[in-house]
Amino acid sequence: MDVRVGDVLQMKKQHPCGAKEMLVLRTGMDFRLRCKGCGREFMIPRLKIEKHIKKITHQDGE
Question: Model pTM?
Answer without folding.
Answer: 0.87
